[in-house]
Predict the structure.
Amino acid sequence: MRKALLFISTFVAVAALAQTPAPAVKYPRVSQKSVLMQSIGTTDMTITYSRPGVKGRKIWGALVPYGAVWRTGANEATTIQFSDDVSINGQKLAAGTYSFHTIPGDKEWTLIFNSVANQWGSYSYDATKDTLRVKATPTPASFTEWMSFEVPMLSTDQATVALRWENVAVPFTVNSNTTQKVLAAAGTAVGNAKPDDWRTAYAAANFAFDNGMLTEATQWSDASLKAGESMGNLWLKARILAKQGKKADAIVMGEKALAKKTDKDNADFAAEIRKTIDEWKK
């Protein structure tokens, strides 16, 4: 009886093993997936796409025909996501995720931001779902084997994004309007700050100064000093005065900043202040 049971158990185990499916094989895509994430000021931009290769083929006007909608990559349609409202080549586009299609041309391209983000290629592309179309001018570029998106120029407010493949680059601008948004938010924050809160106005003044807005920098610097003096906000005021050409006043304010140094203040920061003051005195 035991032998019979053992035989049956062994048979069942072998049969179950025989019915177990083989492990799935994950094959690589010919055109590999890539993601470009770039912050433009306070706005995040994410481009998700697949990278086809040239592989000795003629691309423009051949593999990718002129005058027809193209998925702008391979596999799924390329998507582009913005965390805030932006402007593309000067035209407004709301925050969101879009499929990014193009119509290539020898002298001019059309860039398409379509509201249907998830679609395979451009096979089910529906022009009635377009949110924005803008024009772009292709330029000659050094050879690029694998199609890519790059950000060759970047500032607080604006990025130049370039699609590159074979010997062509197609640039377009993305403007986040960060400076004006931050200035507005900073103004509100300073207005709502407590009387002894010098840090809120100090941070706002620093941003304004770094972006060349001396009127706002002066206003918020004075508000910070009124709430309480520190080595940091006194030194910011000194730099504002120097930028305004008031070197003697800047030196006095700089010395006052050093006199406010505490054990909590960074020694390297204080040394940099001393170095700058000495240069002003020359």
User: Anything to note?
Assistant: Confidence is low (pLDDT under 50) at residues 4-8. The CA atoms of residues 73 and 144 lie 14 Å apart.
